[in-house]
Design goal:
The chain has helices at residues 16-26, 34-47, 58-68, 85-93, 112-118, 138-148, 202-209, 215-219, 239-249, 252-275, 302-314, 330-336, 343-351, 363-377; strands spanning 51-55, 76-80, 97-101, 123-126, 151-155, 163-164, 167-168, 175-179, 192-196, 288-289, 295-298, 352-355. The radius of gyration is 21 Å and the shape is globular. With 379 residues, it is α/β, with parallel strands linked by helices. It has a 7-stranded mixed beta sheet, sandwiched between helices. Strands 7-6-10 form a 3-stranded antiparallel beta sheet, with no helix packed on it. It has a two-stranded antiparallel ribbon with strand order 11-12. The protein folds into 2 domains: 16-249, Type I PLP-dependent aspartate aminotransferase-like (Major domain) (Aspartate Aminotransferase, domain 2); 252-377, Aspartate Aminotransferase, domain 1, CATH 3.90.1150. The longest helix is centred in the C-terminal third of the chain and has 24 residues, at 252-275.
């Protein structure tokens, strides 16, 4: 179905094809070429990251992060159920057990108090997922991790250029993962990055990413030949992908400002509906600075959410719900080894609706979205 107002539309800065053409002319299209290095350097310098490695996806970055933990059978990683399946899959593929915890009903992020209750002698890591580009309470989660000697792996798929206490999300834990998927603020179609904030993990991360070989050390001149030294896989994106991405990363501030204008318009225009109790708007805590990745509303009931979703879609507006909770999915129940009750997650999942938001969303189309919401709910 074609929509008058799509849910998402990739934004082009105007430099992407220029850089892709340069990459082709350079003649080396495999991974870790000049544009890959430029992307990594830009991210490292802008967000104060010790080391950034580009990956084919955020999923791949999370898989590397979990492999670095050397999880033993039965060892646990605490994460929200209200997240994309890649978060849990990375744990399972590395041999660990996902432990699902409920979220805060205001931010939709991990509830630190419930994380504390979930920690056992088998816990190895905490995986905060920064929903909608709004940071988890990283102060509380890092404190918990330090007191129990746990690793913090930030799933910052939605959170590039978002901050907690003026520190970039993805750079606060030991490891962080970004996504450059088509639906993200800064995109190369499919892509990701691993942020390594603990220098002790850099060399092994490079090995895992290079099919388990020490090729990176060879290229740096640290060894005279490279060979297979550890487990790993092919986690390098091509130079074409990196060149396109570099065109996006050069306009981080511009893209963020454009998204912020859309976000603020929704907030302002829908506030009267919230004051009447007809919906709940997103909240950005004082310690957080959002990147305005998405705009969601919460309806009082699933019936009302579904009715609004159907209405908007019938009017050519592509609104969508979000995650089906992992803890209640067939794989989630089987692979976590237990059934848990997460009432906030279940409630949020059934009532949440995401509205179209992208940098160049035309004001008249956004007003159409708002008008249809108001007309249906404000009766």
């Amino acid at each position: 179905m074609s929509y008058t107002v799509p849910f998402n539309r990739p934004y082009l800065t105007g430099h992407e094809l220029e850089y892709v053409s340069q990459a082709i002319q350079n003649g080396d299209l495999s991974g870790d070429g000049p544009f890959s290095r430029r992307c990594c350097q830009l991210l490292e310098e802008r967000f104060d990251v010790g080391k950034v490695l580009l990956t084919p996806s955020c999923t791949a970055a999370l898989e590397i992060a979990m492999l670095l933990l050397d999880l033993k059978p039965g060892e646990e990683v605490i994460l929200p159920s209200f997240t994309f399946v890649s978060s849990a899959n990375a744990v399972v593929l590395a041999g660990g057990k996902p432990v699902f915890v409920d979220v805060d009903p205001t931010t939709l992020n991990l509830d630190p108090a419930l994380v504390a209750q979930a920690i056992t002698d088998k816990t190895r890591a905490i995986m905060p997922v920064h929903y909608a580009g709004v940071g988890c309470d990283m102060h509380a989660l890092v404190a918990l991790a330090e007191s129990h000697q746990l690793t913090v792996v930030e799933d910052a798929a939605q959170a590039l250029n978002a901050f907690f206490d003026e520190r970039a999300l993805g750079t606060i834990g030991h490891l962080g993962a970004y996504s450059f998927h088509q639906t993200k603020n800064f995109s190369c179609g499919e892509g990701g990055a691993l942020c390594i904030n603990d220098e002790r993990l850099i060399e092994r991360a490079e090995i895992i990413r290079e099919k388990g070989t020490n090729r990176s050390q060879f290229l740096k001149g640290h060894v005279d030949k490279y060979t297979w030294v550890d487990r790993g896989s092919s986690y390098l994106p091509s130079e074409l992908v990196a060149a396109f991405l570099y065109g996006q990363l050069g306009s981080v501030d511009v893209i963020t400002e454009m998204r912020q204008r859309c976000y603020q318009t929704y907030l302002q225009e829908l506030k009267p509906l919230e004051e009447k109790g007809l919906l709940q708007l997103p909240v950005v805590p004082e310690r957080c600075r959002s990147n305005y990745h998405l705009f969601h509303i919460l309806l009082p009931t699933q019936t009302e959410r579904d009715a609004l979703l159907k209405h908007l879609n019938s009017q050519g507006i592509h609104a969508v719900f979000h995650y089906i909770p992992l803890h209640s999915s067939p794989a989630g129940r089987r692979l976590s080894g237990s059934e848990v009750e997460l009432p906030v997650t279940d409630s949020i999942s059934s009532r949440l609706l995401r509205l179209p938001i992208y940098p160049d969303l035309e004001p008249e189309l956004q007003q159409q979205v708002i008008s249809e919401i108001v007309s249906l709910l404000n009766v």
